[in-house]
């Protein structure tokens, strides 16, 4: 009986320790540099919708080494399809940067640029579907599943930073907190900026519905992990919705904050926006 | 009395174990916290092992399949050796002309 009791206590203690080991992981911290940079990327680059998520997912797919040349060729083709959008995006970013440097962003000019960016996305589907079919043929089932995980992850990050995050929110890793770190904003500035953003971004409320995009990402994932895949009927028409909303939100953010920055901060921010504009130098498909 | 106690104890231990650690495939357990967040998945290169992409995060290997995240009870030798050979790669998307490099160059 004594032995049994001891065994029982040991067993329960063992289970307890094991459970503790299973659940005592470090806090889920996604605030490391690559994660923060990804959030910043998705706040500033809206040039391809789900195609952009797929293209970026190929950066870290970790596919079989022998397939790398083929995958890089396909990635280049996807990138080439997005080039017209990138050029329009670059123009919008430079317009905002010029406005920030000058102390006031020209909203009308920015909106005209956003309209061009949105229009540029219209032809992306016809451009990418053959490459996506080729990608499906090149990848193994496990690599396809991995790609789908990554596309969903990009969508989750995009949705959070461009839709779910509260306008003017001061949470760690949020847009305003990141800008505060970037420019050395003072508490007094932040106290003015947070409510100003909340007011300014009210105009975007209800204008973006994430549901069609969620459905498109889901449909793509479901189709891509199956043995037979045809991108033509699957890839979506959600590019313009993602592009328009993300860019409008970014533009309003900077339009609202520019008058509240010091001249030195404006110079720094304008420089950073120009760096974003020069991100993704044009490449041609091999 | 002894048999009853043993049976009770066994049932208790088993139920505690299975309730918290639903078993997926051999050697791993379903987890509902601690797994890699979306930004980590999007910026990390997985290691393919056991038929799944595995991510090294927070000191453990995780994989997602069957609608849930799984972690290993014990680190498989292959994955252990892998991370000692080469740290799992992360991708940087900094502003500037080149995103980065440490997996593959982002264009």
List keywords for this structure.
heterodimer; A: 286 residues; mainly alpha; 13 helices; 72% helix; elongated; disordered C terminus; B: 107 residues; alpha+beta; 5-stranded antiparallel sheet; 3 helices; 5 strands; globular
Explain what the structure shows.
The complex is a heterodimer of chains A (286) and B (107). Chain A is mostly helical and 286 residues long. Chain A is 72% helix and 0% strand. In chain A, helix 2 (33-44) packs across helix 7 (141-164), helix 4 packs antiparallel against helix 13 and helix 5 runs antiparallel to helix 12 (239-257). Chain A starts with a helix and ends in a 9-residue tail after the last helix. Chain B is α+β, with helices and mostly antiparallel strands and 107 residues long. Helix content of chain B is 32%, strand content 22%. The longest helix of chain B has 19 residues, at 2-20. The radius of gyration of chain B is 19 Å and the shape is globular. At the A-B interface, helix 1, helix 2, helix 4, helix 7 and helix 13 of A face helix 1, helix 2 and strand 4 of B.
Number of domains of chain A: 1
Quick one: how many beta strands of chain A?
0
> What's the SSE pattern of chain B?
HEHEEEEH
Uncertain segments of chain A are 1-29, 281-286
Name the helix and strand elements of chain A from N-terminus to C-terminus, one letter apiece.
HHHHHHHHHHHHH
The number of helices of chain B is 3
How is this fold's topology laid out?
The complex is a heterodimer of chains A (286) and B (107).
Chain A: H1 2-23, H2 33-44, H3 49-57, H4 68-102, H5 107-120, H6 124-138, H7 141-164, H8 175-183, H9 187-200, H10 210-224, H11 231-234, H12 239-257, H13 263-277
Helix pairs in contact in A: 2-7, 3-4, 3-7, 4-5, 4-6, 4-12, 4-13, 5-12, 7-10, 9-12
Chain B: H1 2-20, E1 28-31, H2 38-43, E2 47-49, E3 52-57, E4 60-65, E5 68-72, H3 77-85
Antiparallel strand pairs in B: 1-5, 2-3, 3-4, 4-5
Summarize, please:
The complex is a heterodimer of chains A (286) and B (107). Helix content of chain A is 72%, strand content 0%.
């Amino acid at each position: 009986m004594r032995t049994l009791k001891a065994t029982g206590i040991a067993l329960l203690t063992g289970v307890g320790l094991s459970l503790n080991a299973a659940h005592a992981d470090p806090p889920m911290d996604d605030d490391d540099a690559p994660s923060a940079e990804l959030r910043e990327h998705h706040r500033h680059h809206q040039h391809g919708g789900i195609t952009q998520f797929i293209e970026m997912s190929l950066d870290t797919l970790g596919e079989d080494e022998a397939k790398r040349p083929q995958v890089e060729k396909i990635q280049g083709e996807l990138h080439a399809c997005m080039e017209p959008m990138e050029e329009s995006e670059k123009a919008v970013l430079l317009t905002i940067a010029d406005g920030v440097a000058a102390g006031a962003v020209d909203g009308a000019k920015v909106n005209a640029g956003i309209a061009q960016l949105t229009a540029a996305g219209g032809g992306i589907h016809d451009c990418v579907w053959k490459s996506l079919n080729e990608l499906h043929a090149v990848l193994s089932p496990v690599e396809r599943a991995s790609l789908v995980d990554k596309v969903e992850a990009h969508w989750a990050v995009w949705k959070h930073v461009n839709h779910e995050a509260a306008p003017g929110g001061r949470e760690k890793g949020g847009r305003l907190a990141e800008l505060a770190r970037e420019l050395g904003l003072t508490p007094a500035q932040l106290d003015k900026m947070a409510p100003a953003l909340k007011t300014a971004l009210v105009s975007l409320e209800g204008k973006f519905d994430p549901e069609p995009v969620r459905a498109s990402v889901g449909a793509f994932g479901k189709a891509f992990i199956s043995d037979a895949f045809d991108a033509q009927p699957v890839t979506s028409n959600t590019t313009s919705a993602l592009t328009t909303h993300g860019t409008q939100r970014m533009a309003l953010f900077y339009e609202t904050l520019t008058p509240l920055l010091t001249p030195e901060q404006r110079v720094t921010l304008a420089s950073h926006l120009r760096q974003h504009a020069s991100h993704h130098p044009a490449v041609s498909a091999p | 009395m002894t048999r009853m106690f043993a049976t009770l104890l066994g049932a208790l231990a088993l139920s505690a174990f299975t309730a918290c650690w639903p078993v997926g495939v051999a050697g791993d357990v379903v987890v509902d916290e601690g797994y890699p967040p979306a930004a980590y998945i999007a910026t990390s290169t997985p290691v393919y092992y056991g038929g799944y992409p595995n991510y090294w995060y927070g000191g453990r290997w995780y994989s997602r399949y069957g609608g849930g995240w799984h972690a290993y009870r014990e680190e498989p030798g292959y994955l252990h050796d892998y991370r000692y050979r080469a740290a799992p790669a992360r991708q940087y998307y900094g502003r500037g002309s080149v995103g980065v490099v440490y997996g593959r160059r982002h264009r």
